[in-house]
Amino acid sequence: MFRKKKRPGAEISSSGLADISFLLLLFFLVTTTIDVDTGIDLVLPPWVENAEQVQVKSENIANLLVNEVGDVLLDEKIIGIPQIKPEIISRIKANPKLIISYKTVRDTPYSIYITVMDQLKLAYQDLRDEYSREKFGITTDQADDEQIQEIRKAIPQRISLAEPTQAEG
Amino acid sequence: MKFNKKLAQTQQNIPTSSLPDIIFMLLIFFMVSTVLREVDILVEYQLPEAIAVEKIDNKRLLSYIWVGRDERIQIDDSIVPVEAISNIAYGKRMNNPNIIMSLRVDRGSRMGIVSDIQQELRRADALRINYSALVKF
Minimal Cα distance from B22: which residue of A? Predict the structure, then answer.
């Protein structure tokens, strides 16, 4: 009785489908930014209300001072920025307990601060690479998590940020 | 002499019926990888360059602080004064204890402002920071 009538041509043409998906694809292509955030990691020291002076033996401290025009003073001696890395490496090798006290003035440009920080990080990177090669025979990029933990423990980054002082004069 | 163009005996047209499928696959890839920018950056800044930069794998932990050329500070969607940072950072740290504050500071800024921000962050106990920098080759 109720027989379904057969209608001719009841299909939707799908040739436009490709065009529509192309449009969507273009939209997402244009809006996508595949950017990876890169930067220098650092852990700040915890805040203490009345900072008690911790006495550190003076031979265990390397004083790094950068002024507002980018002159670097490492323990009262002027050195150029590219020399920081080799100097720090040799000093840490001589004294593994070395703490680098990094101080700037309030007018030091941020780019110079980062360049110097970069030198310190590079120095530590080189030291860790060397340790890793000696101990595991691989570079630090190839080390697994456990090995990285061990490398970090063996060569900790001891960078102390001193609060910048007002430039004199 | 007559040169006849030889025609191959095989079929000449490429089947295009699977084209939408390929496009869809590409589309899905880009849809998944797209992150629509959720904040408008109100300050003008140019990042410094460094060699020893590390990639940040976990973007979910990141929270940004922008410092522009004119030393205005932006967090999330608004310009904030320096003194407000510790409260904001504290609130953020409550939600996410492992938060990494990423400092996107203009390369020409002075260290004074950066240090003030760091002091505020220390007060809020948000100690993991990251100086955003571009890779120098």
Answer: A18
CA distance A2 to chain B (A): 37
pLDDT tens-digit series, residues A113-130: 999 999 898 898 888 888
Identify the residue among B56, B85, B131, B135 best suited for mutation to test binding to A, counting A beta carbons within 10 A and taking the highest. Answer: B131
CATH number at residue B127: 3.30.420.270
Task: Give the one of B23, B59, B130 whose C-beta lies nearest to A39's C-beta.
Answer: B130
3-state DSSP call for residue B90?
Answer: helix
Compute the nearest-CA separation of B54 from chain A (Å): 6
Q: How many domains does chain B have?
A: 1
- Which domains does chain A possess? 58-161 (3.30.420.270)
Q: Does B63 touch chain A (CB under 8 A)?
A: no
Output b/e per residue, A121-138; b: 16+ Cβ within 10 A: bbbbbbbbbebbeeeeee
Q: State yes or no: pLDDT of A169 exceeds 50.
A: no
Give A38-52 pLDDT, tens digit per residue.
888 888 888 777 666
The pairing of beta strand A72-74 with beta strand B49-50: unpaired
Q: Distance between CA atoms of A43 and B130, rounded to whole angstroms?
A: 8
